[in-house]
Design goal:
Chain B: Residues 2-240 form the ABC transporter domain. Chain B: InterPro entries: AAA+_ATPase, ABC_transporter-like_ATP-bd, ABC_transporter-like_CS, ACT-like_dom_sf, MetN_ABC_transporter-like, NIL_domain, P-loop_NTPase. Chain B: One of its GO terms (biological process) is amino acid transport. The structure holds two protein chains of two kinds. Chain A has nine helices and no strands. By secondary structure, chain A is mostly helical. Chain A has a domain at 26-179: Orthogonal Bundle (MetI-like fold), CATH 1.10.3720.10. By secondary structure, chain B is of the alpha/beta class. Chain B is 31% helix and 29% strand. Chain B is built from eleven helices and 14 strands. A six-stranded mixed beta sheet of chain B has the order 6-7-8-3-9-10, sandwiched between helices. Chain B has a four-stranded antiparallel beta sheet with strand order 2-1-4-5, with helices on one face. Chain B has a four-stranded antiparallel beta sheet with strand order 12-13-11-14. The radius of gyration of chain B is 23 Å and the shape is elongated. The chains are: A mainly alpha, B alpha/beta. At the A-B interface, helix 6 and helix 7 of A face helix 2 and helix 3 of B.
Chain lengths: 227, 335
């Protein structure tokens, strides 16, 4: 056994609490990330196709989605949003503490963020490709699933990577009000108990986590890019 | 066969009403290649978009083998669209798909079974000379090859009409000719081909008939050999134009003479010189071999001592068409 006496790793907060905290963070980011992908992607597509001049142009619907749903949600600082959403969280998952409860507000913050990135990515698909899809007799759904999304997939993967990295940042904040995870560990031990080693280890771990996610995202985006 | 009847497209732009198409009618019989030529802003793009129903025409009809596209809705329109193969200027291939997947797309969306799809894709890629490229991605191909893929894709549903929108405008001259040769090779008795372009070269090289589109209207239309033969026609001036020459006002009278077929081989200018007893100079001219016939358009300088009317009468007697240059609309610049 490696002697830990006198090193940072001797700190029980690091030895015993850091691993579960990391798992909680991953759980929060995983659940909210998945929800964001499932709900944010269609919302982003919807934003795109209802724009004036687009395939399902609908000024009213686009206004509601863009100005009300997306922009208003995005106007909330996350710290306020997560508190404001506590009653909804209780209704949805029965509790307002723990990583699963935190995932609710994380997802609600990230869905419009990701949707906006999706919309921007889709705008970069050359309009001629959609014309081609329509001229060949594609249904709207086929144009979306077989042309629009595959053609912007590298950009969509990059957008999702950005969203997940943002979620990691938010998850640390969610930790403070009962979400758990690395954020709470850093706050409780690193800040409130002046254990600088815990603070530094948490930061290092978060940096590594973000680097790995960004690296994987970039690699996937590059691998599927045939342009 | 594609028939367009009184097609109009009106839209408003910044409060201003624009008549992008103003009563376009034309017929392209199966087995023929028809060119529509016009400058930017003439309504070419709008015409393409209205023919394929990418934009809905304001009025008029587009009929393909008896099926009215303008009356079709939803499902019917989607199947009607498959009667038109559309080839774009920039090919508009899907970058995320291989060449074979691109060509197979029109069959994929109608859920054709995989074996049939593969057979069709292989056949088409063979036809456009890209059998080896089936697993490549569009980004790996040159512009000319991408255009070939675009053509193969347009043919996947065995359309009745093949519509080319500026098919060679993004290509270099050599590749242009390769693609044009390919278009000619696609000619079958069942297929009507419509080529929309601003390049006279395209019309000269592949079209049987041609229409001039300007300001959303068809100004002139007809078989290539016929429109070229009209000395005062805009298309003739565009296709068989007189190159720029020095300003010769004062030196004599300018006369344009147009001859075609066997007459182009006759020394008509020398002959007329003899008859009128004066030397006639050729100041500019162009000779083209179009649709199997040679056309010659010359500009002659008649000395003041000779009456130009006599020269013109004599040229006409010899089977050529002639007119005072001043009487022609424009002076030989492209239409």
């Amino acid at each position: 056994m490696i002697p830990l006496e006198g090193t940072w790793f001797a700190n029980p907060a690091i030895q015993k609490a850091m691993w579960p905290a990391l798992l909680e963070t991953l759980q929060m980011v995983g659940i909210s990330g998945l929800a964001t992908l499932i709900l944010g992607l269609p919302l982003g597509v919807w934003l795109f196709i209802t724009r004036p001049g687009a395939m399902s142009a609908n000024r009213t619907l686009n206004f509601v989605l863009s100005a009300i749903v997306v922009n208003i949600t995005r106007s909330f600082p996350y710290a306020i949003l997560m508190i404001a959403l506590m009653p909804l969280t209780v209704v949805l998952v029965g509790t307002k503490i723990g990583p699963i409860a935190a995932s609710v507000s994380l997802a609600i913050a990230a869905i419009p963020f990701f949707a906006r990135l999706v919309e921007t990515s889709l705008r970069d698909v050359h309009v001629g490709k959609l014309d081609a899809a329509h001229a060949m007799g594609s249904t709207k759904l086929q144009s979306i699933t077989k042309v629009l999304i595959p053609e912007s997939l590298p950009a969509l993967v990059a957008s999702f990577t950005t969203t997940v990295v943002t979620l990691i940042g938010y998850s640390a904040m969610a930790g403070l009000i009962g979400g758990g995870g690395l954020g709470r560990l850093a706050y409780n031990y690193g800040f409130q108990r002046y254990q600088t080693d815990v603070m530094i280890m948490t930061v290092v771990l978060l940096i590594l986590l973000v680097q790995v996610i960004q690296w994987v995202g970039d690699a996937v985006s590059k691998a599927i890019d045939h342009r | 066969m594609i028939t367009v009847t009184d097609l109009t497209k009106v839209y408003s732009q910044g409060g201003r009403t624009v008549h992008a198409l103003d009563g376009v009618s034309l017929t392209v019989p199966s087995g023929s290649i028809h060119g529509i030529i016009g400058h930017s802003g003439a309504g070419k793009s709008t015409l393409v978009r209205c023919l394929t129903m990418l934009d809905k025409p304001t009025s008029g009809t587009v009929t393909i083998n008896g099926v009215d596209l303008t009356a079709a809705r939803a499902d019917a329109l989607r199947s009607a669209r498959r009667r038109i193969g559309l080839v774009f200027q920039q090919a508009n291939l899907f970058d995320s798909r291989t060449i074979a997947q691109n060509v197979g797309y029109p069959l994929e969306i109608v859920k054709a079974d995989a074996a049939r799809r593969k057979a069709k894709v292989d056949e088409l890629l063979g036809r456009v000379g890209l059998a080896d490229a089936s697993n490549a991605y569009p980004a790996q191909l040159s512009g000319g090859m991408r255009q070939r893929v675009g053509i193969a894709r347009a043919l996947a549903t065995d359309p009745d009409v093949l519509l080319f929108d500026e098919p060679t405008s993004a290509l270099d001259p050599r590749t242009t000719d390769e693609v044009l040769d390919l278009i000619v090779s696609l000619r079958t008795p069942e297929l009507a081909v419509l080529v929309i372009t601003h390049e006279m070269h395209v019309v000269k090289r592949i079209c049987d008939s041609v229409s001039l589109l300007e300001g959303g209207r068809i100004i002139e239309s007809g078989p290539l050999t016929e429109v070229v033969s009209r000395l005062d026609g805009r298309l003739s001036q565009a296709l068989l134009g007189i190159p720029p020459h020095a300003d010769l006002r004062g030196a004599g009278t300018l006369v344009d003479v147009l001859s075609s077929g066997p007459e182009t081989l006759q020394p008509i200018v020398a002959h007329v010189s003899q008859v009128v007893g004066a030397e006639i100079a050729i100041v500019a001219g162009s000779v083209e071999h179009l649709a199997g016939t040679t056309f010659s358009h010359l500009r002659l300088l008649i000395p003041e001592s000779v009456e130009a009317g006599r020269v013109i009468d004599e040229l006409r007697r010899l089977g050529a068409d002639a007119a005072l240059t001043d009487s022609l609309n424009g002076t030989g610049e492209a239409a």
